[in-house]
UniProtKB/TrEMBL annotation:
Signal sequence segment: 1-23
Name recorded for this polypeptide: Putative neural cell adhesion molecule l1
Disordered, as annotated region: 31-59
Transmembrane segments: none
UniProt cross-references to PROSITE patterns, sorted A to Z: IG_LIKE (PS50835)
The keyword Signal belongs to this UniProt entry's keyword annotation: yes
GO CC annotations, alphabetized: neuron projection membrane
Ig-like domain segment(s): 49-140, 143-248
CDD domains given in the database record: Ig
One of the GO BP terms on file: synapse organization
Length: 276
């Protein structure tokens, strides 16, 4: 009987020990699972730094134009972000534009910028000789970065050889040639005026013709066949991008031919001019 009781107690103790071990193992797995998924997270990697703005060096630093012809000073900025582009005239440190806004009373200046474009051009309408010089394209970084553009403004001039006064006989052909001097580009047009009125050769039946050549240099020729005394007066050659030129023409009647005989028709004669 004693052995029976001892065996029973031993079995109960063994079962209790196994239950405790299983419970302890379950709690250990639970704690391990919780610590694996519920513990503090690793810090997130920082975002990469925003690239700094820089200038596109493919744009020109030297621009040449004719007086009166609109000009554009180039400036391209990569990765501008939330910074601002300004244009400054270095001669007097005058801020001309900031972003798209103009900060000068001279409305010839404005910034040309298209949405999502890297280009911030400075436009100057009707440039004059005084506008020549250095302009600064500046970006509002810390410290600021700048790119300088030099503007050259050429004042082109027209010239009519044979002036300032020309004499020819009535019935001769008046041949005037206008040369455009020191022009970096051909003019858009060349107008001829007689006594302040534009010559419209297309509706004139008197043998008037105008021919303009633009290469290699600009020449404009005015021809009037069978010139008459009413063709006398002041003639002006007016290019779109150059200062005009003038000449005074005298078409003489027959009684004056003897005075011109030593010069030939269509050539200047100061001797005849002295007789007036």
């Amino acid at each position: 009987m004693l052995f029976f009781l001892l065996g029973t107690f031993a079995g109960i103790f063994l079962l209790a020990s196994q239950g405790f071990a299983e419970a302890h193992s379950s709690r250990s797995k639970h704690y391990s699972h919780r610590s694996r998924f519920s513990g503090p997270r690793a810090p997130r990697a920082p975002d990469p730094p925003e690239p700094s703005p820089f200038f596109d060096n493919g744009t020109s630093r030297n621009v040449t134009t004719s007086a009166g012809k609109a000009v554009f000073l180039p400036c391209k900025v990569r990765h501008l972000g939330d910074r601002t582009v300004s244009w400054i005239r270095r001669r007097d440190l005058h801020v001309l534009t900031v972003g798209r806004f103009t900060y000068t009373s001279d409305q010839r200046f404005q910034t040309i910028h298209m949405e999502n474009s890297d280009s911030w051009m400075l436009q100057i309408q009707y440039p004059q000789k005084k506008d020549a010089g250095v302009y600064e394209c500046q970006v509002s970084t810390l410290p600021k970065i700048s790119r300088f553009v030099t503007l050259n403004v050429i004042v082109s001039k027209a010239s009519i050889p044979g002036g300032p006064t020309l004499y020819l006989n009535s019935g001769s052909t008046l041949n005037l040639t206008c040369e455009i001097m020191e022009s970096p580009m051909a003019p858009d047009f060349v107008f001829w005026y007689h006594n302040g009125r534009v010559i419209n050769y297309e509706i004139n039946n008197r043998g008037i013709s105008i021919h303009t050549e633009k290469l290699p240099k600009t020449l404009s020729r005015l021809l009037i066949s069978n010139a008459q005394p009413q063709d006398s007066g002041n003639y002006s050659c007016v290019p779109s991008n150059a200062e005009p030129a003038d000449i005074t023409v005298h078409v003489l009647n027959g009684e004056r031919r003897e005075a011109l005989s030593s010069h030939g028709p269509g050539t200047p004669s100061h001797d005849v001019d002295d007789q007036y």
